[in-house]
Amino acid sequence: MNSVYQFDARGLTCPLAFVLVKQQLLKKSTKSFVLDDDITLKNFVSYLKSENISFEQSVQGSDFNVEILD
User: Which Gene3D superfamilies does its entry note (predicted)?
Assistant: First the structure.
């Protein structure tokens, strides 16, 4: 059974938020991220694209959701 881990980075700003999100992606196999900082979102999306990692991005209110695709 595959568990999907979600990391909630709301309330955190870059650069700390980006560092923690990236760590969760690499070390914890996290597949779902909730962000509320525009700069963190931009940096995370740029990182995912540079690493050819497939993802979907959506917005719910003031929150940004990024889902990593297998």
Answer: TusA-like domain
